From TrEMBL:
UniProt organism field: Paracoccus saliphilus
Origin organism lineage: Bacteria, Pseudomonadati, Pseudomonadota, Alphaproteobacteria, Rhodobacterales
Signal peptide coordinates: 1-26
Domain Ionotropic glutamate receptor C-terminal: 29-248
InterPro entries cross-referenced by the UniProt entry: Iontro_rcpt_C, SBP_3_CS, Solute-binding_3/MltF_N, TAT_signal
Key words of the record: Signal
Segments forming domain Solute-binding protein family 3/N-terminal: 29-249
Protein name, as recorded: Amino acid ABC transporter substrate-binding protein
Family recorded in the similarity comment: Belongs to the bacterial solute-binding protein 3 family.
Length: 267
């Protein structure tokens, strides 16, 4: 049966409304790339849902933007491709702001000052950075700890170096004796070692690295996200999340409670 002009107009309006609604819904989603095995920063729980300190930060940011955070699990190296290609709005994974990364990526203000840890088997005679000389050492591919080790290759004189795609594989090799030390974010190592017996943090190395969220270079959301992070620092939300996940309150005057501008350098 042929449609009347009024029916055609009704169908056209319905299609247009559906298209507009779909567009609105798409705009209401904040697409977030995340490395899914980096507790307590971010990880997937038994139900397959993302949890962690940075997950809570992003969820709060999305809520204040009137959006819903949608998390995608990516391996560490894929995080950089995802933002560069604008496949996601931001990525999280205790990411360090570096001069090299700032050339092709944008970062929010930092909210934690990081440090590296040297993970070893319990009873190891490794107790400091100097003890890594001649040892079999591992870290995560393309991460800040890996670059830190490579920049100090002559100084450290490692026996060998192994690059890993996942933290779990690295720590499994550490426990099984395939490597003698794992160098990674100290917070992540300490958290992991509460779940894995026989491993300890032998030493902590203060590096001055600053953790932030990474976003596409030309992101139109960067300034708004950064302003919300400042609000969260000022109203105590960030400090509350820090204490929830790390078990202690952030230090007075630390990056966790002090608003910062969008960084233009790693300093």
């Amino acid at each position: 049966m042929p449609l009347s002009r009024r029916s055609c107009l009704g169908v056209t309006a319905a299609v247009a409304f559906a298209a507009m609604t779909g567009t609105a819904l798409a705009q209401d989603v904040l697409k977030v790339g995340s490395y899914p095995a980096n507790p307590p920063w971010e990880y997937k729980n038994e139900a397959g849902e993302f949890e962690g300190f940075e997950v809570d930060i992003v969820t709060e940011i999305a809520d204040r933007m009137g959006m819903e955070a949608e998390f995608q699990g990516l391996d560490f190296r894929a995080l950089f491709v995802a933002t560069a290609s604008q496949r996601v709005d931001m990525v999280i994974s205790s990411l360090t702001i570096t001069e090299e990364r700032l050339e092709s990526q944008a970062f929010t203000q930092p909210y934690v000052e990081g440090a590296l840890g040297i993970g070893v088997k319990s009873g190891s005679d490794i107790a400091s950075m100097d003890d890594l000389k001649g040892r079999r050492v591992g870290s995560i591919a393309t991460s800040f700890p890996e670059n830190w080790l490579k920049e100090r290759e002559e100084e450290l004189q490692l026996g060998s170096y192994s690059s890993y795609d996942t933290t779990s594989n690295m720590l499994t090799d550490l426990r099984n004796g395939r490597i003698e030390a794992a160098v990674n974010d100290v917070v992540g190592l300490r958290y992991a070692f509460t779940k894995m017996e026989g491993l300890d943090v032998a030493a902590e190395i203060n590096t001055g690295e600053k953790f932030a969220m990474m976003m596409p270079k030309a992101s139109d959301k960067l300034e708004q996200v950064n302003a919300i992070i400042s609000e969260m620092k000022e109203d105590g939300t960030m400090a509350g999340l820090y204490e929830k996940w790390f078990g202690v309150a952030p230090a007075e005057g630390s990056l966790t409670v002090t608003p910062q501008p969008v960084p233009t350098s790693a300093e």
